[in-house]
Amino acid sequence: MRGPGGDRRRPGGGAGGPGTGGPAGRNRRCPGPHRRGPAGHGRPGRGAGRPAGGVAGPVPARRHAGQHRRGPAPARLHAPATRWLPLLDHARPQDRDGVSQGCDGTLAALRVEVSAGGSVVLVRRGGQPWSEAELESAHALHRLLAERHAGLYRAKAEQALFRLANFDPVTDLPNRAALLAEAQRSLLAGHPTAVLVVGLDRFRALKGTLGEAMADQLLAGVGQRLAGCVQPGDRLARVDTGAFAVLLSGDRASPGPGGGADTLVQAVREGLRAPFPLGGREIYVTASLGLVPAAAGQGDAAGLLRDAEIAAAEAEAGGGGSRAFDAAMRDRLTERYELYDRLRHGIYFGDAVRPVFQPIVNLEDGQLVGFEALARWTDAEKGAVPPTSFIPVAEETGLVVPLGNQILLQACRQVVRWNRGRQGKPLFVSVNLSPYQLDPDRLDLVRWVSGVLALTGADPSWLRLELTESGLVTHAGTAIEVLQNLRDLGVGLAIDDFGTGYSSLAYLQRLPIDGIKIDRSFVANLDDGAKGLALVRTIVQLARTMGLGVVAEGVETGRHLEVLRALGCGRGQGYLFARPLETADAARLVQGGAAWDGKAWG
């Protein structure tokens, strides 16, 4: 809309019209309440021409030549596409009668236009100017529309705040707070209530590999799968970074075989079995489930959810599956936290964490060729802590990164001592890497290894790094580049526990590795007949085809040694040769230089 001088004016800001900020607008004084603008703040004009949402007051149409600036003028009324008369139901009592009386005749003489911006424009038919009374009614109607629109705007804002407070933006599922509120209502109503937590295994590591955006897509997909597993009346929510929870109430809360909770557990397992197509790849996820039931009227919502999370954590620590909560789990959780505190102190302060070394021998002639460094921890209060106790805690808490770094540093120092002045082929040391050490957000592994080699003076060929199949798959996006950079340093690389993970042969061919280690479980099966024999034979033949060296773990009997030699396995380690040795014992073994003679070293 252009003003008389050809300049474009904002609605409510045209020159000279009633209620505008122009000179004529300042001289005109509308009587009575119609001077007040939207929501009762001033008359409609430059300061109130378009309140939140786009409602504008009456503005003059094109003024005919010679028309007096202060006389009645044709006008248009801009407003949202809303029916007028029903709005009178929402008017204030002091406005309702005057507005309805003024509008009844006015509305019959108006033509409706819709602007490009979506506003409704009301124009007098025939181009006749509005009377003073009609303009005053239009001002009152404008205020009414503005107040109504502001109310709708507030309602939308309140709805947005409600969703923000009660829904997860990634999955569009209810969040932790919403689930807790629903659970508390169920408990207060005296209904039997149960909570099932579904925790995605190793999700933090997976998120580091996939990246934020793709991890969110995965979470959304998991949420959709889980939504297909629940029944009407169940309440599904996302309660943590990689965890969901389902609230069961009434008969569905029954934990027994065939009950609602048991049925849901089976449905969740089946629902997550298929891979998730993501970024041109197929991502497999596993979940650990924790269930806690509560009798009618017992417990509190926060306690139920916390106990279900504890049960899910127990399930993951135990290798996956599902667990029903029991009170002893709380005690074990407390013990793990205490263990974490002591382990952290042992890593960063003092020498409580150290490597021990298990010999690796050439199976053909029994010659010592190297050692595998294994982490050990002696606590000042508890004494020697088994690796089966502290390694899972280190993995869960991320302490495995500084723990692994310490073992790597000390192992490289030892291999330098072993090879100093050694005659013949140098020994090597193998060090296990955690999947977390492949996470670039936690550690620049290549820089760390390069720095350790420079600090200790170790030749890169004396160091071999072992990674599990599952760890490589978890960090598939970054693993190949990291491994290639390590290989470029001259470091040896091997897959540990080969055959126990999920990697495909096509993926293995892409990895810059030079060896594999046969898992001890396969070696143990050599005593069980043809099946175990066929499996180990297949692994050895595969390694030969790919040009990889092979080390068999868990060699404990003469039968194992005999079969492995016959199959062409080059190297082995296990209790048949020696248990893990302390640093001083390993040094004496190296100095002795004798080959294995059928009796265990150490």
Tell me briefly what this model is.
This protein is an alpha/beta fold. 42% of the residues lie in helices and 18% in strands. The chain has three domains: 74-158, no CATH class; 176-326, Alpha-Beta Plaits (2-Layer Sandwich), CATH 3.30.70.270; 334-592, EAL domain (TIM Barrel), CATH 3.20.20.450.
**Unreliable runs:** 1-75, 78-92, 98-102
Distance between the termini: 97 Å
In percent terms, what proportion of residues is strand? 15-25%
Please, what is the average pLDDT?
79
Shape: elongated
What structural class do helix, strand and pairing data support? Answer: alpha/beta
Tell me the number of helical segments per DSSP (H or I, 4 or more residues long).
Answer: 19
The residue fraction in helices comes out at: 40-55%
How many strands?
Answer: 20
CATH architecture of the largest domain: Alpha-Beta Barrel
Q: CATH topology of the largest domain, what is it called?
A: TIM Barrel
User: What is the oligomer described by this structure?
Assistant: single chain
Spatial sequence of strands, sheet with the most strands = 12-13-15-16-17-18-19-20
> So, the CATH homologous superfamily of the largest domain?
EAL domain
Rg on CA atoms, Å: 38 Å
CATH class of the largest domain: Alpha Beta
What kind of sheet is the major sheet?
8 strands, mixed, barrel
Number of domains: 3
Biased composition (Basic and acidic residues): 1-10
Domain EAL: 336-594
InterPro entries: Cyclic-di-GMP_PDE-like, EAL_dom, EAL_sf, GGDEF_dom, Nucleotide_cyclase, Rev_trsase/Diguanyl_cyclase
Pfam families: EAL (PF00563), GGDEF (PF00990)
